[in-house]
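If I may wish for something, please walk me through the protein I am sending here so I can picture the backbone:
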Amino acid sequence: MLKIFISHSTRDYKLVTALEVYLKIKGILTYIAENDCQVGRSLSSKIIENLEKSDYFLVLYTNKGKESDYVNQEIGYWIKARGFTNLIPLVEKGIIPEGFLSGCEYFELDPKNHNIGLDKIVDYLVQKKEEYEIELFGDNIVVGLGLLGLTALILYGIYVVVKE
């Protein structure tokens, strides 16, 4: 299943949970650190582990997100680990992305109507999910055919041994 890490300021949690609901309805798994309480565990190690397990990195770059040390560190970690591959910035209208996001293409989020930006992100991720499933299906067919061929060879070998 496609997994999306959502980087955001905790002050944008309400918006992030709305996005999570939209994505869940479409069958897309999300990771939101606040929803993964592991008392006594290092927050940094939990975040790094889930960044590494995720297929896509969606950063909610609002005024609050832009000011968040965690958001900026997560962006840097993702880019260091994977470059700009599968990086999806959702930038609040009127904000000019800085740092690693400077010059990067992004989806725009209208603070007066979040649904427009959220709909575009959901549509984009649904398309990526479908591409992922088609690729996974193709891989499964290749593996299945390989196993079928191996089984046929084993059965033929048994037949030859028994016949002699």
Q: What stands out?
A: The first strand starts at residue 3 and ends at 7.
